[in-house]
Design a protein that fits this description.
Layout (H helix, E strand, L loop, with lengths): L1 E6 L9 H9 L3 E5 L10 H5 L4 E5 L7 E5 L4 E5 L12 E7 L4 E8 L9 H23 L3 E6 L23 H11 L4 E2 H5 L25 E5 L1 H4 L2 E6 L15 E5 L2
Parallel strand pairs: 1-2, 7-8
Antiparallel strand pairs: 1-12, 2-4, 3-4, 5-6, 6-7, 8-10, 9-10, 11-12
Helix pairs in contact: 3-4
């Protein structure tokens, strides 16, 4: 089962690039972020024609997450538990059944948190604590699950070409990275780093200042796997080349293969 996460930075802007990548990569499931569309305006038929079931949790002009799946989507829920006043569309869950295992999919678009310090950074840290609480609940249920998406977290210095440039940014502040580590310390596996070591591996390059041509990137799109899900992982890769194609997102897909 090939499962990908991809921050597309606007479905309208990626209306050609996203289907092109789907046709080439053939993922079974895709967790999308920043669809920037209300549910009724999402081009569902475009993906249904390719054999995908579609679930969205959209919001006008901002945020928005979705799941595309060639497998039936069961028990779809929208919104991260823990704050009934939170109206930002950043989280969606569903279950898919593979050949041997059911996998709970948690697609997320974690808040950016800038400028910092300030209310946006505080919201980010509170959101991460809610995510940690949800992960603890799922661990207690012992169902294989993964939490994947744009975390807006640079976990360590080797995950940025120029780490010093990010020291005071919410993506790399110590309290942000500590919150990420607290999530991992529940017993989750960061899939990419379980298989690939060292610097030079990025999933985001800004549109400004020639970042792509300089390979001035950061790695902020992650898969966190529960222990039973991590046992099923056979691979995890970043589709870096997508960033160099026509009208790309500033993020690229990251994917895992599960023997499920």
């Amino acid at each position: 089962m090939k499962i990908a996460t991809f921050n597309i930075n606007g479905i309208k802007a990626r209306i050609e690039a996203l289907p092109r990548w789907l046709d080439e990569a053939q993922p079974d499931v895709v967790l999308l972020q920043e669809i920037k569309s209300v549910d009724e305006n999402f081009p569902t038929e475009l993906f249904e024609d390719r054999g995908y079931n579609v679930a969205t949790h959209g919001q006008k002009s901002f945020n928005g997450v979705a799941i595309l799946s060639k497998l039936p989507l069961e028990d779809v829920t929208r919104g991260l538990p823990g704050d009934d006043t939170d109206e930002q569309a950043r989280y969606i869950e569903a279950t898919v059944m593979g050949d041997t295992h059911a996998i709970r999919l948690c697609g997320l678009y974690l808040p950016n948190g800038n400028p910092t310090p300030g209310p946006k950074h505080d919201y980010k840290l509170a959101w991460m604590e809610r995510l940690r609480a949800r992960a603890a609940e799922l661990l207690a249920e012992e169902t294989p699950f993964l939490m994947a998406g744009d975390y807006n977290i640079i976990p360590q210095a080797e995950d940025a070409k120029r780490p010093d440039a990010w020291r005071e940014d919410s993506l790399f502040r110590l309290d942000s990275r500590t919150a990420f580590r607290r999530l991992l310390n529940l017993g989750l596996t960061e899939a990419f780093r379980a298989r690939t070591f060292g610097p030079g591996h990025y999933s985001f390059w800004d549109y400004q200042a020639g970042a792509w041509n300089k390979d001035d990137g950061i790695r902020i799109d992650h898969f966190l796997l529960s222990p039973t899900c991590a046992d099923l992982m056979t691979d995890c890769q970043i589709d870096k080349g997508v960033r160099g194609e026509e009208k790309p997102s500033d993020h690229v897909p990251v994917w895992v293969d599960l023997a499920a």
